Amino acid sequence: MKRKLRHDGVLITREQPADVLHAVPACLNCPHSANDSPATNRKRKTVPTPSALRTQPLEPIFALATGTARAAIAVMRVSGTGSDAILRRLLGTLPAPRKASLRRLWRDAVHRTDALDDALVLWLPGPANYTGEDSFELHLHAGPAIVSAVASALVEAGARPAEPGEFTRRAFLHGRIDLTEAEGIADLIEAETEAQRKQALAQSEGRLGTLYRGWADRLRNVLARQEALIDFPDEDLPPEVEAALLTETAALRDEISAHLADGERGERIRRGLTIAIVGPPNAGKSTLLNHLAERQAAIVSPVAGTTRDAIEIVTMLAGVRVTLVDTAGLRETTDPIEAEGVKRAMFHVEHADCVVQMFFAEAAPDHLLPGALPVCNKIDLAPAPFTIEDVPVLGISLRDETGLAALQENLERRVRELTASGSIAPPLTRARHRAAAMVAHEHLKAALAVDWPEMRGEELRLAMRALGRLTGEVGVEDLLDTVFGQFCIGK
Ligand SMILES: Nc1nc2c(ncn2[C@@H]2O[C@H](COP(=O)(O)OP(=O)(O)OP(=O)(O)O)[C@@H](O)[C@H]2O)c(=O)[nH]1
Ligand SMILES: [K+]
Ligand SMILES: [Mg+2]
């Protein structure tokens, strides 16, 4: 809807988002009236999706949900408008919905041509299923010839092979899940560690989406009040209306700011941590890497400058995926290859989540790298200094295996500190969330900094849009390929 707004003779024309109108509080004096709307109390599973995206009948697609590994059973999934006709063609008649039944599959059941397999069949009519549209599953004997015969029968019946993530994309398009839940499902499939699994499960169940939608609902309420102030500037709106909306805007700004200041915990759990081992040549860095990896991953020798390239191994610490990086010994060198190794080591110092600064007594540094854990090796030869720059030094001997349990505990504590959520609130888990939350935060700050009602309204609207992009309610057409392209085929 186009509207013209007047302020000191300035005319502003703008779009009015339809959803703002629904949220106009019944009673402007009561700050809670709009919070009690069904939208706020709504149980999840009716996630609003942009109507422009909700393309109606979607052609049937199919994919093997169980992958191509050798197995006893292969699950073929089919979803889309016309799934019922396809299933009837394969079986003759539709089985009872949501009940497993053992049925003979035919290329064409009416003419009894080409028996394909005896399969367990699940007919899952929409909308109460994963994708929100008519779907079925065929639990086949997993022979490659059976799978490919069934695939070709499905193509003949009018289905096409699914793109990666297309089933989940449809679940999003039909409002079964929001974008954060879709991302949670992708992470759940990829999860390798306990920490990843727990975080992804919470996100796929909507904990992050609920947080973001809660903010959006509150902001919609604020925006409705702001609209009222714009539209009725001369009427007798009580001054509390403006005061209340400013208070609520500031509260939202602070909550989003706290969410952003989570030290990247959620992102770290998702992608794992990097710990770099750095220090002078012959400190025993490669020996430590091998000890932590429990295998001879790196060459160890008494020759200073043995390690040239950075060597990465993946291990698990405190339930978190950790990449350990062994680096070239740091020293001045004229050897161009070693110099390149030192350059790479410094890169890892800068980019690692945690640095183990390793040395031996004679080569103890005067300064510590920022945030580094100082470890003095070879205490079988000479004792370790107690502290460096007031930070206690961990003394170990990799040869005698002393101090290694303490080192392990120390590293695990660091990992927990870097990943444990400070509060019970779900952490953001992707750069996409961080970017959108930052935009929302900026606009809320700007809204509080301006006095013009129209300008404040505009900032609030832009903040609202950023929050809408988080869950996928507005302006996400450009994001969908990126989000769903990360899935495997069949999900
Ligand atoms: N005495 C003693 N020797 C050790 C200990 N730990 C490692 N070494 C020896 O120290 C030498 C150097 O070990 P490396 O692990 O290759 O040292 P590095 O820091 O990786 O060395 P560069 O790759 O050359 O930078 C090897 O001969 C190891 O066997 C220890 O605790 N005590
Ligand atoms: K060495
Ligand atoms: Mg080495």
Automatic annotation (TrEMBL):
**Primary location:** cytoplasm
Enzyme Commission identifier(s): 3.6.-.-
The record's free-text note on cofactor binding: Binds 1 potassium ion per subunit.
Note the CDD domains from the entry. Answer: trmE, TrmE_N
List residues binding GTP.
282-287, 301-307, 326-329
Q: Which residues form the MnmE helical domain?
A: 179-488
Whom does it interact with, and what assembly results?
Answer: Homodimer. Heterotetramer of two MnmE and two MnmG subunits.
Check the record and name the PANTHER family matching this protein. Answer: TRNA MODIFICATION GTPASE GTPBP3 (PTHR42714), TRNA MODIFICATION GTPASE GTPBP3, MITOCHONDRIAL (PTHR42714:SF2)
What's the protein here called?
A: tRNA modification GTPase MnmE
